[in-house]
Amino acid sequence: MSRVATRMGAMLTAVVLILASWAVTTRREAAALDPFTGYLMAHFTGETAAGEQIYLAHSTNGLNWTDLNYGGPVLYSTIGTRGVRDPALVRSPAGDRYWIIATDLRIASGTSWSDAANRGSTSLVVWESTDLVNWSAPWLINVAGGISGAGNAWAPEAIYNPATGDYVVYWATNSARNGVTKHRIWYVRTSNFRTFTAPQLYIERPGTQGLIDTQIIDVPNSVGGYRYYRASADGHITIEASNSILGSWTTLGNLSHMGISNGTGGGNVVEGPMWAQFNGRNEWNLWLDQFATGRGYMPISSTNLGSTQNFRTRSDYSMGTNRKRHGSILNITAAEQSRVLAKWNLNAPVNRLQSYNFQDRYVRHANLDVRIDPNVSPAADAQFRLVPGLANSSGYVSFQSVNYPGYYLRHYGFDFVLAPNDGTTTFAADATFRQVAGLADGAWSSFQSYNYPDRYIRHYNYLLKLEPVTTAQARGDATYRVTS
Asked: Which residues cross the membrane (predicted)?
């Protein structure tokens, strides 16, 4: 073959590769531009044993929310402090990858706020997914490790920056600077949420005024005059605007005229500002957590973010059952919504477990212990959902509490307790059982342990135990009816 032919062949191959790459990129970008039909909120619920994990809620109209996964957590942190708060949902521009980043903090473990702020984790917790429903194991990124005297890394957010082709991750760190110790917003850049640049100061308020919560939204067509808007809890809820994420920002004002502040201005004291655009129209909600009164999130709306005077309060919303604390909202496509709802919008019935040999008694939890009692009050203490087994979903079940979402019946030292799922393989195995024909009556059910298959759930002196079954008495004690 001649050199000319060889060169022509190489050029042709290069053109084909470029065109193929362009086609793949175009398809990915087109997928990301599919019309949005729903909304997904990631949040935590509070300082409880299961509250500092990742919860999801769904909405079809951006105002009325339904808790997913029966109201229980969908992701658990098994690293760092083993608790997470302030989750942010991030989608790649191509719509082919997603991340959740969150504060590595667990107040429920007994950590004081002072320790958490001054001697806490300087890392963020990250999960990754390619479909929004199957998530990687979490990992830590020590974003604040390069800040002198850093005491923590709280309330992370991330936004894609088209000017640099990567993501800006920003968060609050408490540290000394120019003789003043307070929370300031810092940022790093990353393309993969694993490696990142050195931390840089992003937002600092004058004097001793600290700043923890800030969130940026990208506004199509620069409605109101700017491409980006950010809301920050800095004593007030301050609204700023810019045409460049890492450029200069213009202060538009705050919400004091609406009787809303972050404490400095009194009135309705809120935190955790959370932006969301309504699908298909130029209207935005700014959700604010009314933490001072415990009322949870409320939305204020605007069709033009160029002035804080354009916001209006509204009452046509509902937040679902769970209390929703500082999180983020992702507008989702029909395909994304279908996957999310198929995974977590579950409808297992509410059941009770009736004792075979004490038929006026039902399995119930009381102060997190588990026993059989008659006349259970409140009734929800004896109500469970038989969900696919945490350790093995094929032919096995787990018992999730109705009134304590995220809590399951598990054996511990062969005694039974109601405990929050901690995301470990040990917990999953201890909370998983095979439902088999009743040992005393085949029309009823017995429950065989997943990790101790020679043992079954039985009651003894009305308390639930995990024991081998070798006698007629034990077979009766280990037999139950699943009933409504």
From this structure: none
